[in-house]
Amino acid sequence: MDQEVINSYIPLFKDAFLLTVKIGWLGIALAFLLGIVCAFILYFKIPVAKTVVRCYVELFRNTPLLVQLFFIYYGLPAVGISISAEVCGVVGLGLLGGSYMTESIRSGLEAIPVIQTESALSLGMTNGQLFKNVILPQAFTISVPGIVANVIFLLKETSVFSAISLMDLMFTAKDLIGLYYNTMESLFLLVIFYVIMLLPVSLAGTFIEKKVRFKMFGD
C-alpha cells in the first residue's frame, strides 16, 4: 500500500465519515422514538393503532433498506413528494430501525412477570406508579442488549446510502477505486473508519449492559 495515497485520501474519508455518522445517529434517534411509541401501542393493545403498528413492523423488517430507500428517494417524487438524499437516508434508516426497536422494547415490556404487576397493584400502587417504578426499569434492562445490537446493525446499514448518491464512506471508497484504481488503500481506509465508528458503540453498549444489569440484579 502507498502511504502517500492513504494520506491524500484521509481528508475525503473524514468528510464521508462525518456525514455517515450524522445521518446514522439521526436515523437511530428517529428509530428509537418510533420504537418506544409503537412498543407502547402494542403493549397496551390500543385498538386499530396496534394493527397499523404490526403491519408497519412486518413490512419494514421484511424488506431491505436499499428497497426502502429507492421507494422513498425515487418513488415518492412520482406523487409530488421530493426530499433530499440526506433526509431520505435519515427517514429510511429511522423507519427500518423503528421496526426493530419496537420488537426489542416490546419484548422487554412483556417479559415482566404478571405476578409482579399483580403484587404491585395489591400493595396499593396506581397504574402510573406500577408502570414507572416496576415495569419500565426492568423492561429497559432487558431491552438493552437488543437496543445496542440494533444500533450497531443500523450503523452498518449506512453502507447502502451510496445507492442514493450520498457521499458516505462506501460511496467515497467506490468513487476513489473507480477513478484511481487504488483499491487496497481505499478499502483499508474504509475498514478503519467503520471500525472507528462501530467499536466505541460496541464497547459502550457492553459497559451499559453490565451496569444496568448489576444495578437491577446485582450480578
Percent of residues in beta strands = under 5%
The helix content, as a percent range, equals over 70%
CATH architecture of the domain at 17-168: Orthogonal Bundle
What is the name of the CATH topology of the domain at 17-168?
A: MetI-like fold
Spatial separation of the terminal alpha carbons: 47 Å
Q: Can you identify the CATH class of the domain at 17-168?
A: Mainly Alpha
Number of helices: 8
Shape assignment = flat
CATH superfamily grouping of the domain at 17-168: MetI-like
How would a crystallographer describe the biggest sheet? none
Total number of strands? 0
What's the average pLDDT?
91
Describe this structure in words.
- Helices cover 81% and strands 0% of the residues.
- Helix 4 packs across helix 6 and helix 5 runs antiparallel to helix 6 (127-157).
- By secondary structure, the chain is mainly α.
- It has 8 helices and no strands.
- It has helices at residues 3-43, 49-61, 65-75, 85-110, 114-122, 127-157, 169-180, 183-217.
- The protein has a domain at 17-168: Orthogonal Bundle (MetI-like fold).
Q: What is this structure's SSE topology?
A:
Layout: H1 3-43, H2 49-61, H3 65-75, H4 85-110, H5 114-122, H6 127-157, H7 169-180, H8 183-217
Properties at a glance:
mainly alpha, 219 residues, 81% helix, flat
Task: Give a brief description.
With 219 residues, the protein is an all-alpha fold. It has a domain at 17-168: MetI-like (MetI-like fold, Orthogonal Bundle), CATH 1.10.3720.
